[in-house]
Amino acid sequence: MKATRTCPKCGCKKILHVVEVADKYDRSPSSNAVANIARTKMGGKIGGHAAGPLEAHVCSQCGYCELYVTDLANLVPDGDTIRELNG
């Protein structure tokens, strides 16, 4: 959707761009942060390495959503928490 500006599910051409995807980071209803792709440690705890904030493209007709990392160069496979899959 980011490149084609067309929803791959329903064909709609009205796509909404969410520049920063918010993520709740504590229990306070007013505390939001920008969502990041991040490496995790054992047990699902977030580690010290964030790989970049997320943006979203959403179809205005069916609600289909695609997330994108805004800083792809910072997303480095480590074989453990970030794995490279080759088709």
Approximately what portion of the residues adopt beta-strand conformation? 35-45%
- End-to-end span in angstroms? 21 Å
By secondary-structure content and strand pairing, the structural class works out as: mainly beta
* Subunit organisation of the chains: single chain
User: Roughly how much helix do the residues carry, as a percent range?
Assistant: under 10%
- Which blocks of ≥5 consecutive residues have pLDDT under 50? none
Number of domains: 1
- Number of discrete helical segments: 0
Please tally the β strands and state the result: 6
Taken from the alpha-carbon principal axes, the silhouette is globular
**What is the ordering of alpha helices and beta strands?**
EEEEEE
Largest sheet, in brief, is: 4 strands, antiparallel
Q: What's the overall average pLDDT, rounded? A: 80
Radius of gyration based on Cα positions = 15 Å
